[in-house]
Amino acid sequence: MTKHDSNLTLERLTHGDTQVRVARFDGSEVAVKLRLLGYDGCEFECRETFAVGDRLSIHIYRMGLIRARVIAVRRRIVEAEFVKDCPV
In whole angstroms, how far apart are CA 27 and each of 4, 8, 56, 65? Predict the structure, then answer.
């Protein structure tokens, strides 16, 4: 049995191995830095401007796509909640 090295995993995540893109409803995409990922939402940093209520698709490399809506914007930090009634 191998021991999982959580420090190595955290180092990988902070060095940009995970690529995160946000697609707006109009189809435009922008690369972002994911700061927080939780069960109900996430927080990311971006140079682009977003407005409260914007609908997004968050693409996380090797994990898929999550539909979300912006609920708060503080300078370059955007907080989004995941859409729970997402049709399959």
Answer: 39, 35, 9, 14
